[in-house]
Amino acid sequence: MLPLTMALITVVIPVAFCLLGNAKPSPSSQAHEYYYNDTSPSQVYELIGYVELGTPVILKAPVAGYDLIVMGSTKPYMVPGAPIVPVKILTYKLPYGAKVEKVEVTAEVARLEGRFRLLPCPQPQRLGSRRPAPAYVENPEIYGSQEPYPGRLYEYEVHRGVDPVTLERVTFVVVRIFPVQYVPATGNATYIRAARVSITYSQDMPAPAPTSTIDVVIITNESLFAAARELASWKNASGHVAKVYNVSYILANYPGSDPPEKIRNFINYTVTNYGTLYVILLGDAELVPVRRVYSAEFQEWAEYNPYVECDLYYADLDGTWDTDGDGIYGELEDQVDGFPDVLVGRLPASTLEEAYAMVAKIENYRPANRWFRRILLLGTVTFPEYDPLSPEGEILKDYLEANYLPENFSWTKLYEDLGNLTVDNVVSEASRGYGFVNFAGHGNTNLWYLGAGGYFTTSDVYALTNGYNTSVIAASACLTNDFADTDVAISEAFLIHGGGGAIAYLGAAEVAYSYVDYWVTAGLSDEMDWRFLAAFKGLEEDGAIPTPGLMHAMAIEGYLAYHGRNDVDDWFT
């Protein structure tokens, strides 16, 4: 399987989807009740939905002098320095190619009695730093304003990508409703209890289906071709139609301004003409080129490269990722769609021996066996400088266990606060074989920082003895998946280790960000972490096979639906 990386931009390697099994389509579900008005024969349709939002509840925030407003099934709208207000996320799935003509949300507004001082969203903290920034800082422009915040009843976005449940490409319409409008200067607020959503769209006749199929494309370097051919043979014997392509062939035969663009254009061609759903990049970044995308977050920090490796570029085939044509990819202003159109994973082998080791793991992976339905949760006191009684890593793992543990799963917790999060214990437990291993704390290219328990490094990875009972690993920590700038990142060590380790790895290719205290679950790297496991549970409940590639796609789509591209930290995540 492949490493996944943690985000849209920062991340890079989504995992190995089809390598874990044959995912089956299943019926999809909508966010709430709706119906269609069909105005045929003009092929213009109206989708109408109603959503109940409930009544606002006022709570005292855990920070003295501040309030919180919560409503029903809404989530907190997190913009650093701005007041935390509720937001309701609705995602509608329309036919692929549907053109959205109009989206309207209507509601009756009421005044909320009282005056309030809403808590500001905390500042993101780096998961690779022990020198945190101040946590709760008000944006003076917003808090001194007489204008309502967020200042709009709703917003919407249109995305196109693969539906992880049905495996079909669809058009997603994401609607965010802001049921509370808050005037910071006066402390007054208004709210809505319910809303009506109307989406008008047109639809052309669907394009004809491809006459021939290649559902798995493997892209590799000549030096790894033998291992790629073995993997393709195994995939073909498993019911797929797989074909291997050499990077040199693609670069010589497909257009583009540089190697990554040529590879992306080739993938787009196979998706359009052969219905390709899975793409395996067999080779590290020096063998199968990677797209570098720009992060303004790192421009002022000399120790970090502002151009971050990102294989999502190969998965999201909409647009160019360089809308302004300045040759800098993935900028916030480039209006990247972000939803995967194809499932892309990378086997980051540098040698034929490493490639064969990873192929052997795929061929011998048996997630249907009893050992798989276990999860190892590793949590640290991530930011003790703020509140040692709010151990973010442990809070995140408890949140996973309470809300998203799949049916019939058992768990083991190694926590810094419990005193059992040590290097020896991690090696011993991980060697027993767990379906999932999940870590939250500080990290670097070659290690997980266990707090008082020390440093778990690549050397410790090679001591694991779980054989082919390999884990799907997710790590909310800085730099652990920096596969393109590191000789052997800890993510790669987990994957290439022949005696055990991992079948897939989700982690940040650069610095990862987190919120402090109990806001740890409300965004950034830690939200991608819980969304990844939540996707396993959701896909399984929908009747689909929850492979890591599908889980990664669902996590990305869910995160973007919630946060959009309004803030550089969310887009970077």
Describe the protein's architecture and organization.
- The protein is an alpha/beta fold and 573 residues long.
- It contains 13 helices and 30 strands.
- The chain has a 6-stranded parallel beta sheet, sandwiched between helices. The chain has a 4-stranded antiparallel beta sheet with strand order 2-3-15-8, with no helix packed on it.
- The chain is globular.
- The N terminus is likely disordered.
Helical proportion, percent range: 10-25%
CATH architecture of the domain at 366-572: 3-Layer(aba) Sandwich
The CATH top-level class label of the domain at 366-572: Alpha Beta
| Biggest pleated-sheet summary | 6 strands, parallel
Q: How large, in whole angstroms, is the Cα Rg?
A: 23 Å
Q: Please report which band the strand proportion falls in: under 5%, 5-15%, 15-25%, 25-35%, 35-45% or over 45%.
A: 25-35%
Mean pLDDT: 90
Number of strands: 30
* N-C termini distance: 22 Å
| Anisotropy-based shape | globular
Strands in their spatial order, largest beta sheet: 1-29-28-24-22-23
Oligomer: single chain
Q: What class do helices, strands and sheet pairing give?
A: alpha/beta
Topology:
Elements (H helix, E strand, L loop, with lengths): L2 E3 L28 E5 L5 E9 L4 E4 L6 E4 L4 E3 L7 E11 L3 E8 L2 E4 L12 E2 L13 H4 L10 E9 L6 E9 L2 E4 L4 E5 L1 E9 L13 E5 L4 H13 L4 E5 H7 L5 H16 L3 E5 L9 E3 L12 E3 L2 H4 L27 E5 L4 H12 L10 E6 L12 H12 L6 E6 L7 H8 L5 E5 L2 E2 L2 E3 L5 E3 H4 L9 E6 L13 H7 L5 E6 L5 E2 L9 H18 L6 H16 L4 H5 L1
Parallel strand pairs: 1-29, 16-17, 16-18, 18-21, 22-23, 22-24, 24-28, 28-29
Antiparallel strand pairs: 2-3, 3-15, 4-5, 6-7, 7-12, 8-15, 9-14, 10-30, 11-12, 13-14, 19-20, 25-26, 26-27
